[in-house]
Structures are given as C-alpha cells and as structure tokens.
Prior knowledge:
The complex is a heterodimer.
Chain A: E1 3-5, H1 22-47, H2 63-71, E2 78-82, H3 86-91, H4 96-103, E3 128-132, H5 137-151, E4 158-163, H6 170-181, E5 186-192, E6 195-196, E7 199-200, H7 201-204, E8 220-225, H8 229-244, E9 250-255, H9 273-280, H10 284-294, H11 300-323
Parallel strand pairs in A: 1-8, 2-3, 2-4, 4-5, 5-9, 8-9
Antiparallel strand pairs in A: 6-7
Helix pairs in contact in A: 1-2, 1-10, 1-11, 2-8, 4-11, 5-6
Chain B: E1 3-5, H1 6-20, E2 24-28, H2 44-48, E3 53-55, H3 60-72, E4 76-81, H4 91-104, E5 114-119, H5 135-138, E6 144-146, H6 151-163, E7 168-173, E8 180-182, E9 196-199, E10 204-208, H7 212-225, E11 230-234, E12 237-239, H8 243-253, E13 256-263, H9 268-280, E14 289-293, H10 302-308, H11 312-323
Parallel strand pairs in B: 2-3, 2-4, 4-5, 5-7, 6-7, 10-11, 10-13, 13-14
Antiparallel strand pairs in B: 1-8, 6-12, 9-11
Amino acid sequence: MEITRTFKSVDAGNYARHGLSRERLLQMLRRMIEIRRFEERVEHLFLQEGALIGPSHLCLGQEAIAAGAIGALKDDDLITTTYRGHGHAIAKGVPLKLLMAELFGKATGTCKGLGGSMHVAIYPEKGSVYATAIVGSGIVIANGIALALRQAGKRQVVMTFFGDGASNTGSFHEGMNLASVWKLPVIFVCENNLYAMSTRADQAVAAESVASRAEAYRMRSVLTDGNDAVAVFLAAKQAIENARNGHGPTLLECMTYKLKGHGVYDKAEYRPKEEVERWLKRDPINNFEARLLEAKLATQADFDQIEKQVAAEVEESVTFAKKSSVLPFEDLMKYVYAR
Amino acid sequence: MRQLTYADALREGLREEMIRDPRVVLMGEEIGVFEGVYKVTRGLLKEFGPERVRDTPISEAAIAGAAIGAALAGLKPVAEIMYMDFVPICLDQIATQAAKMHFMSGGKLKVPMVLRTQYSLGRAHGSQHSQFFPSWFFQVPGLKVVLPSTPHDAKGLLKAAIRDGNPVVFIESGVLYRTKGPVPEGDYVIPFGQCDVKRKGNDLTIVAVSRLVNEALAAATKLEEEGLLVEVIDPRTIQPLDLATILESVKRTGRLIVASDDVKSGGIGSEIAAAVVEEGFDSLDAPILRVASPNMPIPFSPTLEQAYMPNAEKIAEAARKLIG
C-alpha cells in the first residue's frame, strides 16, 4: 500500500474545485478559533484563576486537524477521541457551555460532571461517541462501532483520533490489523505532535513515520501537514470516501505541534527552543487566515467578527458552568449500572 | 426432563438468543470454523453465517474492544476469550473501558455485551491455562460476574447475560463442559442476584461456586451419613450477590463454609465471609472457614494439581473441623 504524501496543500485558487466553498472554509476557521479561544480560557482557569483542577490536556496548536478532518465528515458520522479531546468535541459541534460545565464537574456538563476533562468529549448526541484516558484503547473500540454500523447496513464511518504515542501500543497494532482484515469503515487519525509527554517520537517510533506502519497491515495511509486545515480536509475526505464505499480503513498521520506541554501544568522545558520557535511560525490559524486573505476569500473584518462571536460564546460557557450545580452524591449509584 | 451437557446448554442458550434477537453476534478465537475449542459454538457458523459468528485474529484487546464498540453502536455482542488466563490481555478494555462507560458518561453510554470465558482448573493445563480470578472482576463496579455451575443454570444465566444492558463477565468451568444435567426446552431466564439453595439443612451452610457446587453436594451427602445436615447454596452470580439468602441460612445454621476455586487471599470466600461478619455477626456460632486454592501458582503434574484443588473431601474436612 502506498503512502500518499500530501504535504503540499492545494493552492487557494483551487479550493472551489476541491469542494471547499468560502462558507466551508470560514466554518473551518471558525471551529479552529473556537478551539483556540476555548483552550486558552481553560488554561487561564487552571493556571491564573485556580478555578479548575485535575489533569487536562490542551490541543493548542493542533486545531487544524480537528477542524479539517471532522470538517470532512457528515453530521451523522461518528468519532472517538482521547484525553486530548476538547478540540474534537468542539469540531463535532458539542456546545461549548456543556464542555465547560463538564470541566467544572457540574451536572450540566456533557457527562454530568462524572467524566471530567479527559472524557468531556463523550457526547453521542453529536456523534462524539467516546473519549478514553488510556492511550491507544479507543482504537479497538472504534472498530466495533464501525462493525455495528456496517452490519446495520448504514453508510456512516467512524473516525478515531490518537497520538504518536498510541502508535506504540498493542491496541494500535491489534486494531489496525483487525480493521484491515475486516475492511471496516474507520479512519485512523494520528495526531503526531512529535512528543508523547516528553518522549520524542523519533526516539520511540521504530519506523520512518507512523503512517508507514499501515503498510504492515495492508492499509492505505496518508502523511499530511497537520497544521494545514485544507491539507487535512482533503486527505480526510479521500479516506472517508474510501471507507464509506466499502474500501476499508485508512491511517491518516497529521504532523503537528503543541503550543504548550503535555498537560496544562507542563511547561514543556524538554523541547528545544529553536524547535518551538520554528513551529510557532507555523501557527495553523495565522497561516490559514493569511491564505484566505491572499485568495481574497475573507477580510480582516470577517476574522474580527468570528473572534467577537467566539469570545462571547466562551465567556457565556464559563458563566453557565460556574452557576451550574453539582450532581448530588446520593444520585451516583444509579449511574454504575444501566437499567 | 431431557439431559444436556453444560456445553450444549450454553450452545442452546446462544442459539436461541441469536434467533430471538438479530443484534446478538458472536466473536472470538476459533469459535466459527473450529466451532469453539470446547464446541460450545458447534453449528452456529453454519446456521448464522460469518457476519454473526466471527472468527477473530489472536488479538484479545481487539476482540474485547470490537465487542464494546459494537455494543455502543447497537449490537449485542458475545465475545469469547478462550481461556480465563487470556482475559488479562484485554483487562483494560473490560475493567477500565466497558465497566466505566455508563457511569462516566452520566448514563448516556450503554454496553450490553457478554464476555464468555472459562477456567480449566482440574484438566492438567498448568499454571497459565487454569487460572480462576473472579475477584479481579467483582472488584470492578460496572461489571456483572456470573458463575454457572449446572447445565440448567448455564443456559438460563447466559440468556439473562445477553439480555442485560451491562457488560457481563460470564465465567464457565472447563471441567463442567461434559457434565450432564436436566435442561428445559425453550426459553427461560435465570435472573441475576438470586442464590439457588441446592439442598436444605440446619447444621451448617456451605456456599459454593462454579465447579465446587457439585463437590459441596458430594460433601453434604457424605456428611449426612455422619449425621450432619448441610445446606448448600450456589450464589450463581457474584456481582450482584444475593447476600440475603446466605444471611438467612447462616441465621439458622450458625456456621458457614465458603468453597471456591480461586486462591484464598482476597477471593470469593474472603468477600462473602467479610460480608457475613459485617451483617450477620450475631448469627455466627463458629469462625467462617474458606475452602479455596492455596496461594501458589497451579502445578501441572496431574497428581499435584489434584492435591492443589479444593474438593469434596476438603470441604467435608472443613465441616468436621467446624462442628467438632
């Protein structure tokens, strides 16, 4: 199976030809800005205000993957994600206020305050089926979801997100193999942000790339620029079409970089300064905006308007979360087992 | 009533549920073409086809994960893990994923799946193909744990497990597969959390699970000859546990032995003994005894394995000690 390298995105002049209308592009940008501002606000609530505690793994810098890949899905397609899943939930359309309320542990949150940041993306109402806190474990579950969809004769697909670290787990390898032999409608999206906590992917992944591992499982793979929403969108679109048409799974590796550390408290001092600076210049939002301006598909006024709306939405989410109440402890036992 | 083996009773339970509900699918190693290493799935591939009876690669995490995902998305999977010793390979999926989903999603996610497995203690399978560790699962809220001891219960409990809306760990005993017993034709379900009082008696209560239920009954017969009337109770499910029936019995007998194949430390016996002390201390006239496996790996040598295993004689011995 070939690895398609789509590091080169299409020129802005060709967007329309690839199904990228102005409206769609602005929607993708809006999602990215929602994710960025939401995550920045969350970080502030943790570090400056002390209003939030517990582990939280932000996806600052990785917004283009969520917006691009999920932007290529239909509304009724399903995703699974991980403890770094705020962005995927937002891209799938989960309301910010429900996400924020969950981070606050409130009864109005996506999981009624029983999940927290690492599971906040569990919101099946919007097709965000599951978010796991155990590295790699969601991959095999995505297979089962896809199996059930196909067996029910549906044309939906499942997109499962994970990081470069997960590609070293047994679940990844077992899951890739099973998806391939069963030709399941799954898109495996690896967000390779070069580090699993502080461990560099080039020290931990014994392969040229994560994408190249697909070859061992007779699976298609694509290696793409994860900071380019259009490149991710186009790569995902192809993978989704293949899955939907019964041609089986694809491994899509998106190269990216976290603006911050592994978790909200991690200062990421283990990353070389030059590397950080190099990636900061490749900010997915700034670059996307520059290209939209260059192609005259949007103006600064468009961006300002999005920013203004998103800022209001984020603030509203904090207000909502703060004024919500916590589930009474006496109610918890009824959530242990389904009736 | 007609007699069926434990394996055939399970097979009949699976088959009837597959006919009753098209969402029921089976997956596991060697369950299709090979019809299960103990032939529990005999004939099912032929009858239901490869979409509903899926042979899988040797990938326990992928099997359990696929079952969980399929359950989330509307199927009712019954996944088979060939030996209980292989279940820890997918323990994350069972204990940390499936068991938590309903709770930590605030009740939105449901995982109606069954994980069937069996332990082969008593068949000279050695340290890595004989283990029995139900406590690993009843320690995990969110899971149900079922331990059928007869063909009749195997069928009825399996049907209940498939119809339950939760992840159920269904642990069969390998040495029981060829044992026979009466099994009603057609549909019947044994609800979880209901002890079966196998034999009444007022001198001593023996709670026994899985393979040891027959051993406890044999011990009771022997003890009756010695003038002791023993009550034998099979809890059938450990999570949920019908403690009320056990407490009621101990209230009459004042004496309790718990017999199970797991190692003594932290096992079923420990749990039931602790619960009875907590809630029925005033009923007790003597210490509670546990008849269980010693705290060591299971030896291969058939002679040593027999010496290792709890049996009717060890249960009777404990009873004599308790009464003596």
